[in-house]
Write a structure and sequence with these properties.
By secondary structure, the chain is of the alpha/beta class. It folds into three domains: 201 residues, P-loop containing nucleotide triphosphate hydrolases (Rossmann fold, 3-Layer(aba) Sandwich); 80 residues, Helicase, Ruva Protein, domain 3 (Orthogonal Bundle); 74 residues, Orthogonal Bundle (Arc Repressor Mutant, subunit A). The chain contains 16 helices and eleven strands. A five-stranded parallel sheet has the order 2-5-6-1-7, with helices on both faces. The protein is globular and about 65 Å long. The structure holds adenosine-5'-triphosphate and magnesium ion (MG). Magnesium ion binds next to helix 2.
C-alpha cells in the first residue's frame, strides 16, 4: 500500500478578523458608541431621526447594531432596505407583513384585526404551517399613483398595531433616499403627514445620498425640515481604528508595524469598508508568509492583489465613462479633489469650466465621486478610494 505523500505544511486555519461588506454587530463595531446611543434613545423615545453618511461608512452596521440592542430590550424593530424593493407598495407590503408577524397576536385573530385596522388595504393573510409564519398580500389596486398612499396607510397601520399590542416599535428605513428621490415634494409631504402623528412608533430614516438628505432635512421650505434629529456619520477615529487593526494582526501572532497600519488607513482614505478590505488582504498575505512583517511594502503588495481582483469591475466602470468624465476623474485624484473648477485646473485637464461642472455632477450621480464640505470650500472625493489607487496604476498617473 502506497504511503500518503506528505503535504506541505499549511498555516493554521484561522478566521480573518477583518470583514468588509457584512452588517456588523454591536460588539464588532469600532467606536460609534455615541451614535449607537443616539439611535437607541430615538427608538426608546419613539422619536424620529435621519441618519446620514457617505457610502460604506457603516450606516447599515449601525442600524443592525441598534436593532439588536433594541430587540434585546423588548422593542419590536421593523428594518427594511428601500433599495431592495422595486416599488413602494412592495416595500409597504413587506413592512406590513413584518408588523403583522410581530404585533398581531394569535394567528386565528390576525385576519380580523387587520381587516379592522387596515380595511383600505384589503390585506389577505395566509398561514404556512410548515414554517409557522403568516404571509400577507394587499388586495388594493397597485400602480404608480397608489404606491405612496399605500405606504402611508401601512405606516398608519403599524402605529395602530403597536398601540393595540401595547408594544414599542421602531421602523427603520435604510437607503431612504430611494423612497423620495424620484417622487419629489409630494412624497416628502405625505410621509411627514403620517409619521408626525405617530406616538408608538419611532422612526429612523437612513441614507447615503448625503447632499440629497442633508438638503431635504435642512431646508425650511421642505416637509422634512425639523421633523426629526439629524445624525451625520463621518470617519472612525483613527487611533481606535489603528488599535483595532493592530489587535487583529496580533491575535493571530502576525507582525504589524505602525508604519504598515498607517499605510492601510492612508491608502483606504479611512473609509471603513476600504480599510477593512485592505486589512483583510494584508492579513491573508501575512498568514501564508508569517515571517513577513506588515510594513509599507507589504501593504502595497496586498493592495496590488485587491486591485487585480477588482480590475474587471474597475475597467468596466472606466470604459463606461465619457472622455470628459475620465479627465475629470483624473483631476479628482491628482488634485485631491480641490479647486476643480479653477481656470488653472480647467486648462491643465483641457476641460472648460462648465463641462467640468457637468462631468463632476455626472460622476456624482453614478456614485463614483461625492462632495465633501470643508470649511469655506468643497472637496470632491472618490467614493471608493481603491478605485483611485487603480487609476493611478492602470493610467500611470
Ligand atoms: N464601526 C465600524 N467598525 C469597523 N468597521 C466598520 C464600521 N462600520 C463599517 N465598517 C466596515 O464597513 C463595511 C460596510 O459597512 P456598512 O454596510 O454598514 O456601511 P453602509 O454605510 O451601510 O454602506 P452602503 O452605503 O454601501 O450601504 C462593514 O462591513 C465593515 O467592513
Ligand atoms: Mg448600507
Amino acid at each position: 500500500m502506497a504511503l500518503p505523500t506528505r503535504r506541505p505544511s499549511l498555516p493554521p486555519a484561522a478566521r480573518n478578523p477583518f470583514e468588509f461588506g457584512r452588517e456588523l454587530s454591536p460588539d464588532e463595531l469600532v467606536d460609534r458608541a455615541a451614535e449607537l446611543d443616539q439611535l437607541i434613545r430615538t427608538i426608546e423615545n419613539a422619536d424620529k431621526l435621519f441618519l446620514i453618511g457617505p457610502r460604506r461608512y457603516g450606516k447599515t452596521s449601525l442600524l443592525h447594531a441598534a436593532q439588536a440592542l433594541a430587540e434585546s430590550r423588548g422593542i419590536v424593530v421593523l428594518r427594511y432596505d428601500a433599495e431592495r424593493y422595486e416599488s413602494l407598495d412592495l416595500l409597504a407590503e413587506a413592512l406590513l407583513t413584518g408588523a403583522a408577524r410581530a404585533l398581531a397576536g394569535p394567528i386565528d385573530r390576525t385576519g380580523d384585526l387587520l381587516a379592522r385596522v387596515a380595511a383600505k388595504l384589503k390585506p389577505h393573510v395566509t398561514y404556512d404551517v410548515s414554517n409557522q409564519q403568516l404571509s400577507l398580500s394587499l388586495g388594493i389596486e397597485r400602480n404608480t399613483a397608489t404606491e405612496l398612499p399605500i405606504l402611508a396607510d401601512v405606516l398608519d397601520t403599524v402605529e395602530k398595531l403597536a398601540s393595540n399590542a401595547k408594544r414599542r416599535v421602531a421602523v427603520i428605513l435604510d437607503e431612504f433616499q430611494h423612497v423620495v428621490e424620484e417622487r419629489g415634494a409630494a412624497a416628502e409631504r405625505q410621509i411627514r403627514a403620517v409619521v408626525q402623528r405617530h406616538r408608538h412608533v419611532g422612526y429612523i430614516f437612513a441614507g447615503s445620498a448625503t447632499r440629497l438628505l442633508a438638503d431635504m432635512t435642512s431646508d425650511s421650505g421642505r416637509a422634512f425640515y425639523k421633523l426629526g434629529a439629524r445624525l451625520f456619520i463621518g470617519p472612525l477615529p483613527a487611533e481606535e481604528f489603528k488599535a483595532f487593526l493592530d489587535a487583529g494582526f496580533a491575535d493571530a501572532k502576525l507582525k504589524s508595524t505602525p508604519e504598515g497600519v498607517d499605510a492601510i488607513l492612508e491608502l483606504a482614505e479611512e473609509v471603513p469598508y476600504s480599510v477593512q478590505r485592505l486589512a483583510h488582504a494584508c492579513w491573508e498575505m501575512l498568514r501564508v508568509e508569517p515571517a513577513r512583517q506588515l510594513d509599507r511594502d507589504a501593504v502595497n503588495a496586498a493592495l496590488l492583489q485587491v486591485l487585480m481582483q477588482e480590475n474587471p469591475a474597475y475597467t468596466q466602470l472606466w470604459n463606461s465613462l465619457t472622455q470628459v468624465q475620465k479627465r475629470a476623474a483624473k483631476a479628482v485624484v491628482l488634485e485631491r479633489g480641490l479647486a476643480l473648477q479653477s481656470a488653472d485646473v480647467s486648462r491643465r485637464y483641457r476641460i472648460p469650466t462648465a463641462s467640468m461642472q457637468k462631468a463632476l455632477g455626472a460622476l456624482d450621480r453614478r456614485g463614483v465621486i461625492r462632495e465633501e464640505a470643508l470649511v469655506g470650500r468643497v472637496r470632491w472625493r472618490l467614493e471608493d478610494p481603491l478605485f483611485g489607487a487603480w487609476l493611478r496604476m492602470a493610467q500611470q498617473l
